[in-house]
Amino acid sequence: MNKTRNIYFTSDHHFGHENIIKFTNRPFGSVEEMDQELIKRWNSRVNKHDKVYHLGDFGLCKAERMRDILEQLNGKIFLIRGNHEGAAQANPNRFEWIKDYFELNVNDANAPNGKQKIMLMHYAMRVWRSSFRGTWHLYGHSHGSLKDDPTMNSFDVGVDCHDFYPLTYDEVKDIMSKKIWEPPFKNK
Question: What single-letter DSSP state applies at residue 139?
Answer without folding.
Answer: E
